Structure formats: structure tokens, C-alpha cells
């Protein structure tokens, strides 16, 4: 079985531990609604404007010139969200917006009910757990800290975002293994995306596809598929 040789369980978030619906119907709309307030309140932080203006040069479909005004930056960020872009600067901005929402009580994340018991079983077995998501590390921590099941951050030792590379790039998983001082083969990665599993496997990291309600259909593959974590370590 995959879990017998596993030292660390690496978790994707969206569609794996958290419903896609929560991300796309709660988190993304919340950030869209609050971009204008964010840019109005952080106008002094020109780094955000500079990075977004630079990023706009690569968006050939976006025909408007992006300026440093709150309105222009807001409009461009809404466009990026609509295209589901994984830009680090966008994720950082969203993370800051969500932080305020979580801390104020406006936001509370949804986690699949089988996740907390599985994390507890991992801890009791002496194994390790970490997270790798396209959302910023800050956003990842917020999802697990402010969830309906309570604070789950106690179960994770590390968080990784696209600073280590894209999730469909094999080198990203190599870097994660190196940072964790583990052999790639001792890591078991849970994801809902075949291409991410392919990239992990190319790096020597073993993968399992998680099939949750609302997840997108995947191309044919030979990976083990589970519907919930009760199928692991049971």
C-alpha cells in the first residue's frame, strides 16, 4: 500500500481538502468585492501597482492600459480572477483581503469532514503533513486556521506555494522534497488534477487522485483514485 512507505503526506487544497465550490463561490467573489477597498487603503504600497502593471504586459487579451489608480488595478485584478490566473502578486493581494475577512468573522472556510480525522491519524502514526497549493502560503494557513472544524494548522509542518514553482512542473516537487530533507519516494501527494500528479510522479513523488463532488473530470490515468481519506490508513 502507498501509505506504508510514506513519511510525509503532501496535500493540495482546492478539490482535495476543500470543496472547489468554496474557493470559487466564496473566496474568489469575496476578493473581487474588496479589491477596490484594498487598493484604496494600500495606495502607498507602490510595489503592488508596479507588479500588476508589469504583469499586464503579458496579458495580450486585456486591451486596457493598467495604471496605479485603485480603479484601474481593481479592474485588472477582476480580469485575472475571471481567467483563474495563478500570479503570485494576485495571490498575495487576495491573501491579504481574505485575512481581514477571516479575522473579522466574515469568512469561515469549509473543509471536507473526513480531513480532520485523517490528519489526526497521520499525527498519531508519527508521520508528517504539509501543504502545496497555488494559493499563497498566507492564504493556505488562513483556510486551515479559520475553518468550521477549528484550527487545523497544528497538523501541518510546512506550506508551499508557487514560489517553489508551478504545480504542473516536476522541479517544484523536487524542491519540496529537498526543503523537507526527504527522498521524493517517501512523499505521498494528494491532488485532484492529473497533470499535477504527472509532474509529481516525474520527480519521484507518489500521487493519489482525490475525486470529490464538484471536481472536474480527469483524463484517463493509472493513479489510485479515492473519494475520501477514510480509504487511507483504514
UniProtKB/TrEMBL annotation:
<dbReference type="GO" id="GO:0000287">
    <property type="term" value="F:magnesium ion binding"/>
</dbReference>
<dbReference type="Pfam" id="PF00702">
    <property type="entry name" value="Hydrolase"/>
</dbReference>
<dbReference type="GO" id="GO:0019509">
    <property type="term" value="P:L-methionine salvage from methylthioadenosine"/>
</dbReference>
<dbReference type="InterPro" id="IPR023214">
    <property type="entry name" value="HAD_sf"/>
</dbReference>
<dbReference type="GO" id="GO:0043715">
    <property type="term" value="F:2,3-diketo-5-methylthiopentyl-1-phosphate enolase activity"/>
</dbReference>
<keyword id="KW-0028">Amino-acid biosynthesis</keyword>
<keyword id="KW-0378">Hydrolase</keyword>
<protein>
    <recommendedName>
        <fullName>Enolase-phosphatase E1</fullName>
        <ecNumber>3.1.3.77</ecNumber>
    </recommendedName>
</protein>
<comment type="function">
    <text>Bifunctional enzyme that catalyzes the enolization of 2,3-diketo-5-methylthiopentyl-1-phosphate (DK-MTP-1-P) into the intermediate 2-hydroxy-3-keto-5-methylthiopentenyl-1-phosphate (HK-MTPenyl-1-P), which is then dephosphorylated to form the acireductone 1,2-dihydroxy-3-keto-5-methylthiopentene (DHK-MTPene).</text>
</comment>
<keyword id="KW-0479">Metal-binding</keyword>
<comment type="subunit">
    <text>Monomer.</text>
</comment>
<comment type="pathway">
    <text>Amino-acid biosynthesis; L-methionine biosynthesis via salvage pathway; L-methionine from S-methyl-5-thio-alpha-D-ribose 1-phosphate: step 3/6.</text>
</comment>
<dbReference type="GO" id="GO:0043716">
    <property type="term" value="F:2-hydroxy-3-keto-5-methylthiopentenyl-1-phosphate phosphatase activity"/>
</dbReference>
<dbReference type="InterPro" id="IPR023943">
    <property type="entry name" value="Enolase-ppase_E1"/>
</dbReference>
<comment type="pathway">
    <text>Amino-acid biosynthesis; L-methionine biosynthesis via salvage pathway; L-methionine from S-methyl-5-thio-alpha-D-ribose 1-phosphate: step 4/6.</text>
</comment>
<keyword id="KW-0486">Methionine biosynthesis</keyword>
<dbReference type="InterPro" id="IPR036412">
    <property type="entry name" value="HAD-like_sf"/>
</dbReference>
<comment type="similarity">
    <text>Belongs to the HAD-like hydrolase superfamily. MasA/MtnC family.</text>
</comment>
<dbReference type="GO" id="GO:0043874">
    <property type="term" value="F:acireductone synthase activity"/>
</dbReference>
<keyword id="KW-0460">Magnesium</keyword>
